[in-house]
Write a structure and sequence with these properties.
heterodimer, A: 147 residues, mainly alpha, 5 helices, 35% helix, B: 296 residues, alpha/beta, five-stranded parallel sheet, 7 helices, 8 strands, mitochondrion (chain A)
């Protein structure tokens, strides 16, 4: 299919180009591509029109505003305080993305995890978070968390 | 002999298209270089044994099947059914989560065009919104199944040292094609190397499935623009650092984890096989109808 006008991949989408070629009878109806009918029946959520990448500034950095929302949990405060002050593990890598992927069936190895879970159990509306934190700390003072 | 020599001279540019051993036995020429042939009239090396239909466009569909399809009022047009192949039941959000499909790259690598697909950023790592991913995935799998139903030539593309073999295996199990090596510039577009005007010239795929939009050197894969130029529909797994605007059916997901690529390989395989099964079903039942008619 090397007909005229098809190779401009940045103008419109493949669908719009072929639809217009069919309309103007450049391509015969029988010679339409195999995906054309399926595309018309089940179009994608967004028509695949080319959008160029955003330009970079003089330092090669993106000029776009970073407005993707940060994912934070209530227990992040607990995690941070505990792991910074009380956990015996080294803190070279504080970015704990694995907290997004916790499977309950595996036994907890991380002491911060255990601490946070216990904190969640003790949590109630009356006491402040510092009080509940102190309570869980007392609770674990009797048991060795690193096991 | 003349024909063979002209085609073999293209060996420098043609890349290895791996294919299933079940179908199209004529296509196994040399150990690594396999060419795929187009024929508007008949195959280049005619083989009476293999049942090949070099379907390229809608026109070349055998008329018998169409007639029996139209005749039988019980048989519905697959395009009218919202989920003819039952593709939506193949995967759930939990499967996606377990396969770590929601992890994107760090926010420094983010491509602004992927922003609408992101749920948020957890401590510097972009996280995809799996509800949105699932919607896109359903559409992509549905499209894939319909194309397999229409006997499309499907090319799976993935330039990755880690996952190349998995993709080649996927193509072999589906009975389709894969390309996991260095992409020759102009494989689709260069008319000097791939003469299309000649009788029995080279045939292009109808659908390209990209399991990663990037080359190993973190550049955009050359085949994406070539597909758009030549009018080949594309499905692509878009990570948070690529430009998805030109892909026909993008799927915003993780393309780096082993688990996530394995999941997508298995899903694509299932979708293609579902499409092919239904096709065989319809062909077999139409043949039986045909023989019934002829005996009457």
């Amino acid at each position: 299919m090397s007909t005229v006008g098809i190779r401009l991949h940045r103008s419109g989408s493949i669908y719009s180009r072929i639809r217009d070629l069919l309309k103007t009878d450049v391509i015969e109806r029988d010679n339409r591509p195999l995906w054309y009918d399926v595309y018309e029946a089940f179009p994608p959520i967004r028509e695949p029109v080319y959008v160029p990448d955003m330009k970079l500034d003089e330092f090669g950095l993106s000029i776009a505003k970073d407005d993707v929302r940060p994912i934070l949990y209530e227990e992040d405060w607990v995690r941070a305080t505990y792991s910074l002050h009380y956990s015996k593990v080294s803190h070279n890598n504080l970015k704990d993305v694995t907290s997004m992927f916790i499977d309950k069936k595996y036994p907890c190895v991380c002491s911060t995890l255990k601490f946070v879970e216990q904190y969640q159990e003790f949590k109630n509306k009356d006491s402040s978070k510092e009080e509940i934190f102190a309570k869980t700390l007392d609770y674990f003072g009797k048991i060795d968390l690193q096991k | 002999m003349k024909r063979i020599s002209t085609l073999c001279s293209c060996s420098a540019y043609a890349s290895a298209f791996i294919q299933s051993t079940n179908s199209f036995s004529l296509r196994t020429l040399t150990s690594h270089q396999m060419f795929y042939f187009k024929s508007s009239m008949k195959p280049l090396f005619p083989s009476s044994k293999t049942q090949q239909s070099f379907l390229r466009t809608v026109q070349s569909e055998p008329k018998i099947q169409v007639a029996t399809l139209q005749k039988n009022t019980e048989r519905e047009n697959p395009l009218l059914h919202s989920d003819f192949f039952g593709v939506k039941s193949l995967v759930t959000i939990e499967d996606l989560y377990k396969a770590r499909v929601h992890f994107g790259h760090t926010k420094g690598c983010r491509n602004e065009l992927m922003k609408p697909y992101l749920f948020g950023c957890r401590l510097g790592t972009d996280i995809f919104d799996l509800d949105v991913t699932l919607q896109h995935l359903h559409r992509a799998l549905n499209f894939l199944a319909h194309m397999a139903f229409r006997k499309a030539i499907i090319l799976f593309i993935m330039k990755s040292h880690q996952h190349g073999h998995a993709v080649e295996k996927l193509a072999q199990e589906c009975g389709e094609f894969a390309h996991t090596r260095a992409w020759g510039h102009g494989t689709f577009t260069n008319n000097k190397i791939n003469p299309r005007e000649l009788k029995g010239g080279i045939k292009l795929p109808d659908l390209c499935v990209f399991l990663s939009l990037q080359d190993t050197v973190q550049d955009r894969h050359l085949a994406i623009d070539e597909c758009a130029k030549v009018g080949i529909a594309t499905i692509g797994i878009c990570d948070s650092n690529v430009n998805p605007s030109i892909i026909t059916y993008p799927v915003p997901a993780n393309d780096d984890s082993l688990q996530s690529i394995e999941l997508f390989c298995s899903l694509f395989k299932k979708a293609v096989l579902l499409g092919k099964e239904k096709r065989l079903e319809i062909e077999n039942s139409s043949q039986s109808v045909k023989t019934a008619d002829s005996t009457e």
